[in-house]
Design goal:
The structure holds 2 protein chains of 2 kinds. By secondary structure, chain A is an alpha+beta fold. Chain A is built from 8 helices and 18 strands. Chain B starts with a helix and ends in an 11-residue tail after the last helix. The chains are: A alpha+beta, B alpha+beta.
Chain lengths: 335, 342
């Protein structure tokens, strides 16, 4: 196994703690641009907020995609007493947010609560709202506007083997891509796509491929880890990079997944399979672009996805990084 | 009145020809070019006066919800399924037309219903259209499977400022865009009148393949929830409070910088504007904003009660304010080809 310290986890900390709910990925994009600015010349954005970074080469045109956005909530109205009513953005339920902290772009923190129904005690489905500690609609309106979004608060903690933070989905993917841009020397013509709006249905991925037509696309994302105390037989932490086989939006060609697995085996990189029937990633719209794009996926298993308290293993992150590096340095004659 | 004429045309999803023909006839002389694509969308263009002006796409859908004949029974009744989202509860004993044939929607009369049946919610399976035929053979002379049935509903003014009609969703948008095409603005305009929105935004999917504007405005009718059973906070939008600007729906997140610009224009010109508080449902923006390398997109809607029924209600003032706001957006330096991204 190569040196475990080739990844600068301080970058992951900054990435994961940056504010970036779907449609509001600008701060993440700016951070990534700063990080890689001295390594590349060609950095572009599009109207969806995607960031596209090219590392030109003479080989095959390869797209590496990861998404910048995280789940959150959107403020839909401000009540008379200054309480903020909201709707979820991405795969999270309002009820899962009860008593959690959320943070707006301007750093203001609020807590999620629920209306009590005092008239009819059986009817408990009061609406959820965010309390930002103000006394009036007017006061709230100076801090938050309708349409503003907030993200879950979840501090970053790094231990010897694990990472805990909000938004590891998919800042881990962004982190691997950023480190790859900094470290990799490849002959291939590489396009690193940091996409917007994945959590609301891979919308950025729909526009990012426009005009590129890559020979191959590799998607870096997180995946559900199933290693709860009573379930150990599926994708789990610490078993290495998860090579995508299937999700709700893609069935990966056996040629591609086997090519990836062979590369992992030959280089002593630990891997497992990602097979889920729910959820999709950017691989969905990307592989359907134009006349179809050969697409594979490398996933990092994460426990407690979409909760603000996501846990991932450094071993899996390193495995994913090493596997991607190997793949990008291989000849592509067989694909 | 343009809106009245538009609402009285029948054009259920997949069957929009009469609406399209009407629109084209009325606007043909006001535009530089027009084309129809193979799914049935109508796209017209007004060229910009100079090449540095942005191209703005205005988009409204021509189709309305309705019914589709799926079976003719031995007794000559017509079984049907909805096209688009329709609550079966609203259909009982309503008059419909299938081409020139008149019919009424029937179900078991209250006298015949068992006690527990009276409490049950009706399904489409329990409803049928009665066209006054005695046998299957007789019915088959007038109607065939696959025909559309339309609501018979008159356009009527109610109260001082309200009006009632079928198909206001989205003939309102069609009417507003047609009125916009009467004038010229400091931009090029592409107006897309789309098909099959109500069954899953299908026409706009095709539009997003070949129309590449700098900016897009979807003009819609949106469900008002200002009814008694709901708390006021849950009213997504209200009638007579002006047009509604969307924040997010199930297919689009609208850029906050654009929402703020619309709000500012409205405020500066004393146009009432509300935000659409619900994030449910979707419109053609879902496809339009993902066209090409992405298109900055907003949705402006006229609030509409009883949407997707034969008796939708809007407030005329909301319509007028929406028209004023659209004109101001197209006039002002709102849509300079910006390098600014979300």
């Amino acid at each position: 196994m190569p040196n475990r310290n080739i990844l600068d986890y301080h970058v992951l900390k900054l990435l994961a703690q940056t504010y970036g709910p779907s449609g509001n990925e600008r701060q993440v994009a700016e951070f990534i641009s700063q990080q890689v600015g001295s390594y590349v010349q060609d950095i572009r954005s599009d109207a969806l907020g995607n960031l596209l970074i090219r590392k030109p080469g003479t080989g095959k045109k390869i797209l590496i995609a990861c998404h910048m956005d995280e789940i959150g909530v959107i403020i839909t109205s401000i009540g008379e007493e200054g309480y903020l009513y909201f709707a979820p953005v991405g795969g999270v339920k309002s009820s899962d947010l009860l008593a959690k902290r959320v943070q707006f772009q301007n750093k203001r923190i609020g807590v999620v609560s629920q209306e009590k129904n005092t008239v009819d005690e059986e009817k408990t489905s009061g609406k959820y709202f965010i309390d930002i500690g103000v006394n009036s609609q007017e006061e709230a309106g100076k801090i938050v506007r309708e349409g503003d979004m907030a993200v879950l608060v979840g501090d970053y903690q790094e231990t010897a083997d694990h990472i805990l933070s909000k938004a590891l989905d998919d800042r881990i993917g962004c982190f691997i891509a950023v480190e790859m841009i900094k470290q990799l020397h490849s002959e291939q013509d590489l396009y690193f796509a940091f996409t917007a709006q994945e959590e609301v249905g891979s919308r950025g991925a729909k526009t990012i491929v426009h005009g590129i037509e890559p020979d191959l696309a590799l998607i870096l994302d997180t995946t559900l880890s199933f290693d709860s105390p009573k379930e150990k037989n599926r994708t789990s932490l610490n078993r290495g990079a998860a090579i995508k086989v299937m999700d709700r939006t893609i069935v990966v060609s056996p040629r591609i997944k086997n090519w990836m697995a062979d590369a992992a085996s030959q280089n002593d990189i630990s891997f497992q399979w990602e097979i889920i029937t729910t959820g999709g990633t950017d691989s969905g719209p990307i592989h359907l672009t134009g006349r179809g794009i050969p697409t594979g996926g490398i996933a990092i298993p994460v426990r407690y996805l979409h909760t603000g308290n996501e846990i991932a293993a450094k071993h899996d992150i390193l495995s994913a990084f090493l596997l991607l590096a190997v793949l990008l340095n291989q000849p592509f004659t067989n694909l | 009145m343009l809106l009245k004429e538009l609402c009285q045309i029948n054009g259920v999803s997949g069957n929009e020809k009469r609406v399209r023909d009407f629109i084209l006839e009325r606007i043909q002389d006001k535009v530089d070019s027009w084309q129809m694509d193979k799914i049935g969308n109508l796209v017209v263009k007004k060229k910009p006066s100079s090449s540095d002006q942005p191209i703005v796409l205005l988009c409204a859908h021509m189709d309305e919800v309705g019914l589709f004949i799926t079976e003719i029974t031995a007794d000559g009744y017509l079984k049907f399924q909805p096209v688009g989202g329709i609550d079966p509860q609203i259909l009982v004993s309503k008059p419909v037309s299938i081409g020139s044939i008149q019919g009424v929607i029937g179900t078991k009369a209250i006298h015949l219903q068992r006690k527990e049946e009276r409490k049950q919610i009706l399904n489409f399976e329990e409803l049928y259209i009665d066209i006054g035929a005695n046998t299957k053979e007789e019915a088959e002379k007038e109607v065939k499977i696959g025909d559309y049935a339309f609501f018979n509903s008159h356009f009527e003014i109610i109260g001082q400022d309200y009006l009632k009609a079928k198909a206001l969703d989205d003939r309102i948008g069609c009417a507003l865009i047609m009125e916009i095409l009467d004038s010229s603005f400091a931009c090029g305009i592409i107006a897309a009148f789309t098909v099959q929105e109500e069954i899953g935004l299908r026409g706009s999917k095709v539009i997003s393949n070949y129309v590449q504007p700098d900016f897009a405005i979807i003009v819609e009718a949106t469900r008002a929830a200002d009814i008694e059973e709901e708390n006021e906070e849950a009213w997504s939008v209200e009638l007579s409070k002006g047009p509604a600007c969307s924040l997010m729906d199930s297919a689009t997140i609208y850029q906050s910088r654009l929402i703020q610009k619309v709000s500012n224009i409205a405020r500066n010109h004393h146009i009432p504007l509300q935000f659409r508080k619900s994030t449910a449902a979707a419109n053609d923006a879902g496809n339009i904003h993902k066209g090409g390398t992405g298109v900055p997109t907003i949705t402006l809607s006229v609030p509409c009660r009883n949407i997707h029924s034969m008796s939708s209600v809007i407030c005329k003032t909301d319509y007028e304010y929406c028209l004023s706001l659209l004109r101001l957006i197209l006039q002002g330096g709102f849509i300079n080809a910006e390098s600014e991204y979300p």
